[in-house]
Design brief:
Elements: H1 15-35, H2 42-49, H3 53-60, H4 63-75, H5 87-103, H6 108-118, H7 122-149, H8 158-175, H9 182-197
Helix pairs in contact: 1-2, 1-4, 1-6, 4-7, 5-6, 5-7, 5-8, 5-9, 6-7, 7-8, 8-9
Length: 205
């Protein structure tokens, strides 16, 4: 949650409470990945985490609160985009990270389940938007660095470059349900880098 919001489970106290918080939020993600949003219950999360269900209800209020808090917690984890020294290959690394996150990474089931859950719960959708906004912001650093190297003109919108590079990957993975090949990833990175170099992502008047 942002600092302006105060939903249940949004504080980060220390000591045993902090350990219980991590246990509950990790258990929520595990349940989401293994069984999907529709099958999560507070009882299952409580049993998996070892935290009494009364505590879970009191702090998170129910399944929506749990999933929202778990996604917000995930957004806080350390992550930085790969730097290769060139915009094209930086964007390729981002596209590869997205593809791997849904197909190869240990958390791949959670990634897909979180997107599906966002269609069922506005609270989860809000948390997913915050998660993606955070990742776009962090990823945009590679574009900002490319602008400084002269690979794209001043005024280029870094986050729009990132969106353009990864959008075809998300489309294939989540909409058309097609395989994503290395050639697909190279193409989206190349097209986006070339478009950025031509000023396509400089906002108009």
């Amino acid at each position: 949650m942002s600092s302006q919001e105060s939903a249940p489970g949004s504080t980060r106290p220390g000591g045993r409470t902090a350990r219980n918080t991590v246990a509950v939020l990790q258990a929520t993600l595990d349940e989401l990945g293994e069984h999907g949003y529709g099958a999560i219950t507070v009882d299952l999360v409580a049993a998996r985490s070892g935290v009494h269900k009364a505590t879970v209800y009191r702090r998170w209020g129910g399944v929506d609160g749990l999933v929202r808090a778990a996604l917000d917690w995930s957004a806080d984890q350390d992550w930085e985009p790969t730097r290769t020294g060139a915009l094209h290959t930086d964007l390729l690394a981002l596209a590869e990270t997205v593809a791997q996150g849904f197909t190869e990474a240990p958390e791949r089931e959670v990634s897909a389940a979180a997107v599906a859950a966002a269609f069922e719960s506005e609270a989860v959708a809000g948390a997913l938007r915050r998660f993606m906004a955070d990742r776009h912001r962090r990823s945009a650093a590679v574009v900002t660095e490319a602008i400084a190297r002269g690979e794209a003109p001043e005024g280029t919108d870094p986050e729009e470059v990132v969106r353009s590079a990864v959008a075809p990957v998300y489309y294939r993975l989540l909409v058309s349900r097609e395989p994503v090949s290395p050639a697909d990833l190279r193409r989206t990175a190349r097209i986006t880098a070339d478009a950025a170099a031509e000023g396509a992502f400089v906002p108009g008047p």
